[in-house]
Structure formats: structure tokens, C-alpha cells
Amino acid sequence: MNDAQAIDYAKAALAAWDVPACTPRLIKNRENAVFEVTGPDGTRAALRLHRPGYQTDAAIRSELVWSLGLAQATMAVPCPLQTRDGDVITQVPDARRVASLVTWSEGEPLGEGGVPFTWAPDRQAQLYHALGAELALLHRISDTLSLPDWFERPRLDIDGLLGEVPLWGRFWENAALTQGEMALLQEARSRLQGELQALSGDADFGLIHADALRENVFVQGDSVSLIDFDDGVYGFRLYDPGVAMSQNWDLPNAAELAAALCEGYGLDAKSAALVPVFTVIRALASCGWCMPRYAPNDPALITYSNRAVKIAERYLDGKPIYGA
């Protein structure tokens, strides 16, 4: 779907909501196409055209019900806006896409993957401390919500992360890997399975954001908030801070950022020591995620696979995961 098509589909989707006439402003056209639009009350809102086949209609409705529950518990998250028919999604004519409309999130992104932070190191640490606290709040509130019987989100349990058919793909079969690198990722996968099996009986498991990357963390003053719950799942709670560190693992101040994140969350030393394990798992998962999205010779595919190999080597060699 090119940008011009996306804008046409966005205009068609808005007919389902009681909104003023406006020209949707395309923010990104990637997994989902996201637009800034005018909402029913005349304020800014975000319209999403969801990627076909990624989530079922029930799973998208579930994400929005979850977000509504979090917002009603005073958490700053995008809140769904109902259509004229009282639904939270609509089918977009001719687009094979589902659309949803949510309240606008104020602030600026924490950063962008692969791009150096604009914040000073002390400010980075302060913001990751705030992010840890926000993730802990998300997990606590999610456990208190009364969700409908039809609530549906994927599971990132041991099989979903490291099984024969992981949720994000068989990462060890990435076309950019050599045979030796494939074997290396298989070795890491086997060892990680053992770690999670040893952990699973004591692990905190429940609804998680699962994509707390810099782009999905918005900064306002000293506070942060989360956007884009599209990848939200039932999973290991430690996966969320592990994901948050997956863009930072090789920075010179990575250990300091991880310490701030874990302190903000309130993790004890034993749990904090496991966060790097989940950063490794996320790097492997991303190596699978990119496979259907890029051609075998695409630089992005090579970047994801190289990162997975480097972090797996550190893990298997028993070296610290975080740091340059």
C-alpha cells in the first residue's frame, strides 16, 4: 500500500466516526499505517489502518479494551474512540484493512532505533528509570482488569519465543545467516529454552506491551507514556524491560541504562540479572520478524541478523550482554 492509497483509505475509514472533515496526515506507513486526524470532539486523534493478517478482529478489539481499562485506571495510554455504530473498529472498503481511532498521545519519542540519543547520559538514565516504573504500573494495572470472555491476545511463552514455530518466525533460518551462524543461533536457542524452563515456575507472566522501543515511549517533562499496543501479548513480564534494552545493548552506557530501568521497575537483583537474557531473546525474535518483510539481500535483514549473531556470541561466551 503506497502513501497515496493509504491516505485514500484513511479518508474512507473516517466515515465510520462522527468526525469533522479533515485531511489525514500520514505519520508512518509500516506495519500499520498511522495518521494524525481530527477526532469527534475536534481534538487530535490517531487513526490506524491495521496490517492485514497480523491480528484478528477480536485481537484488535481486545487491544483496545485493554487500553481503555488502563486509561480508566488513570494510565496515560491511547484510548479507543467509538464509531457511530458503537464499535471500536471498522472495515475499510476495498482496503482489506481494519481501522481504529484512538486519542492522541502528547510528547516526543524517547528516540529512534539506530540513531544516537539526543539526551545527555544523565537524562537518558532518568528517562529509563521512569520507563521502568511505567512498565511496572502497566503490569500491575493489567492484573486488576476484568476483561471480557472473548478477550484474545497471542502468547509469548517458551514455545512462542523459542519453540519450533516461534510467534515471530524461525529466526535461525534467516536467509542472511551463514550455516555456521544458523548453528550458533540454534545453540543459543537451546540454552535459552533451558533458562526459561528453569524460570517458568517462578516467573511473573501476564499481559505485557512487548514493544517498548524508543519510538513507542513518549516523553513529557520527567514522565513517559507508552503507545502502540499492537504487539501486546501474554508473556514473561521481564520481556518488557528486555525489549526496552534491545536498542541499547551495545551502547557505552548500556549497563547504566539497564540499572536505571530495573530500579524504576523495582526489580530485585535476581530478576534484574535476567533482563539481559530477555534482551538476547528479543534480538533473536527480531531476526525472525524481519524475514517476511525484507528481501534476502536487503541491508535491513542483514542488520537484524548481524545483531542476533553478535548478541548470541556474547551470551554463549558468558560475556556481559550490555556495553560497547
Automatic annotation (TrEMBL):
Lineage of the species this protein comes from: Bacteria, Pseudomonadati, Pseudomonadota, Alphaproteobacteria, Rhodobacterales
Identify the residues that the record assigns to the Aminoglycoside phosphotransferase domain, covering every copy: 29-268
Write down what this protein is called: Homoserine kinase
Top-rank taxon of the source lineage equals Bacteria
Q: Which organism is it from?
A: Profundibacter amoris
Query: GO: which molecular function terms?
Result: kinase activity
Keywords of the record: Kinase, Transferase
